[in-house]
Amino acid sequence: MIKSMTGFGKMTIETGNKKIVIEVKSLNSKQLDINLRIPNLYKEKEMEIRNLIKNWLERGKIDVCIYFDNSETEKAVSINSLVVEQYFKQMLEVANTLGVQINNNELLQTIMRFPDTLKQPSEELDEAEWLQLKAGTEKALEMTDLFRKREGEVLIKDILHRIDLIKAYAAEVPQYEGKRIEGVRQRLQEKMKEWQEIQNIDQNRMEQEIIYYLEKLDITEEKVRLANHCQYFIETVEKEEAPGRKLGFIAQEIGREINTMGSKANDHDIQKLVVHMKDELEKIKEQSLNIL
User: Fold this and answer.
1) pTM of the predicted model, to two decimals?
2) Residue 1 domain-assigned?
3) Are residues 183 and 257 part of one domain?
């Protein structure tokens, strides 16, 4: 199934007196780029969480944030009175030495920003809590994956529609080729009349130049290759699980044939069709970047 790389999932779990929120956001990226923000309590499980993300989402710019939802779950904080008192005495001594008058309230507020003025009791991760967190994380990743599948369905439907449009525009080209060929024939006839008036012209060289000129204007191969590339694009969508990169390469090949057709066409009506095909192809390229 085709998946987009855009997705979102959110899961909330409760364990003990904690309410833990797990949020997953996914955007397109060439590689797997994981940005993981978790409380210090879960740092020891960071690699396991990253492996879960990798197994579920494979590729993309992934932001995963795990946090406590309410203040009641935060660790109890107490003031380290001994440290604050030492800071206060030393600051007063420095102020007296320098002859600086300071406000005690403002000094205390400043000191409370210093290191180690607050202390928190250490907490160890309980195995039961980790199992709940792991299950919740997998559920959030599963929701993100489901979101990606839904987005992928919409995305690939639009892309295939644009492939059909390119094929339809290409199918209109032959109706203008009769006029184009007649124009080429007339120009060649006029040139040949001019060449006949030139003395000592090399007939073999002239024939070679005419053949080269005709081959240069012929777009039959480009039309065939364009049709083949479009069909290969569709087959890749139908057969592969994660075709994003390959679809990008095929789109480049489609663009190469369209550009060559445009440069060879030398016809206003065909050029208009080429412009339409290029427009659709640019939209395909842009959207293909978001396919896994």
Assistant:
1) 0.74
2) no
3) yes
